[in-house]
Amino acid sequence: MELGSEFHIDLTNAMIRGNTIYHLLARYNTFYTDYGRSAIALVYEHLVQTTGGRRDRVLLPSYICESVVKPFEGKNVVFYDLKENFEIDEQGLYKLLESGDFDGGVFFLMHYFGMVQPEETLTQIQILCKERDIAIIEDTTHSIFTKERTIGDYCIASLRKWMPIPEGAVIYSMNQLPAEWQELEHAKTSYKINAMILKQLFLGQADIYRDLENVALVNEAYRNIFAGEEERIGESGELYAISFLSAFLLQCIDISEIRDNRAANYRHLGEELSGNGITLYNWEKNQRSTQAVWADMLVPLTALLCVKDKDRDRFRQYLEEQRIYCAVHWDIKSEEQRRHANVSDWSENLISIPIDQRYGEAHMRYLADIITEFFNQ
Predict the structure, then answer these.
(1) Residue range 181-238, pLDDT digits in tens
(2) Helix, strand, coil share of the chain (percent; to 5)
(3) What's the predicted TM-score (pTM) here?
(4) Nearest CA among 130, 136, 83 for reference residue 107
C-alpha cells in the first residue's frame, strides 16, 4: 500500500461528469490559469491597472508559502498575525487596516486547511476595507469545498492541490474579468501527466508489473518527473491560461466525491487517532466548525499533526519507510515571517497527513496504526 504524494491518473476512465468545479462556480465570472501564482499575478496586475489607489500597499498573512508572496515582491508588503488555531488575530489586523497606511491597497485573505475564518471577523474586515478602498483578494485554495467565497472581491484557488490534473487554478469573481485574459496563451500540458500515468501503472496494476526485473525504475521515474516539474514551475515567470488537457479533465472530476471522501476520511482518521491518545492539530476547533454559522461541511485539504515533542524529520522518514508520503505546509524560510506569532512553530513542527479522495476508511485505520506505532516508541 502507498499513500500520499502526487496524484495518479487513468485516462482510460475519463468521462464528462455532472457535478464539477465548473458547476460549483457557474454563478461567478471565471478564468482558469495554469498555476495559482499566475492567478494571483493576473488579479493583482488588474487591480493596479484599473482601480488606481495605492495598490503597492499589501497586507499578507504571516503563514503563507513563498509562491504566494512572490507576485508581490518589490511592493510594500506587511504581514499580519494569526492565532494558534490559524484564525486571524483580529485586533492586530484591525489596527493595521485603521491606520490609514493601507488605504487604497490590497488585503490578502486566506483560510487554512478547510477551516473558514470566523464570520464576525470577516464582516468587520469587509466593512473596514470598503471604507478605506482596500481590495480583497481571497485565496480559497484550502477552503473552496467548505465555502467557495466569503468576502473576496476576487477569489483564486489552486485546483491541482485537490484534483488529479497536471496543472490548473482558477480566478473567480462577481466582478467582470478583463477580456484580454482570454487572449493569453494556453499552457503546454505539464510533463506531470506522464508521471501521473506512470504512477497509475505502478499502483493500479502492480500485479502485472511486480515480476518485472526493473519495476523499481517505474517508481523512480515518476518521482523524478514530479520533482523536476515542481522545480521548473518555481523558476517560471510566465503567465498562462490553463492547458486544454487540464481544462478537459476538470469536466471529468465529480467534486461531490472530493467533498464527501475527504470529510469522511478526516473524521475517521481523527477518531481513530483520538482513540489511541493522539490528537490531530486543531481537531477540536474543526469539529466545532462543522456546526458553525456558515452551515457548510468542513472539507479539509489535509489533516495536520504536530510532532513538537518528537523529531518531525525522523517521523517523516519513518512514514516514508512505510510508503506513506507526507507534505509540509510550509517550511517557511523568510526571517520576517518567522518573527510573527506561531510561524516558526508551525513551520518546524507540523506535518500534513494525506486524507484525499483516493482513500477510504480502511486506509485511515492503517494510517492511524502506523502513526500510533511511532508515537508509542
Answers:
(1) 999 999 999 989 988 888 887 776 555 545 555 556 666 777 787 777 777 766 667 8
(2) 45, 15, 40
(3) 0.94
(4) 136
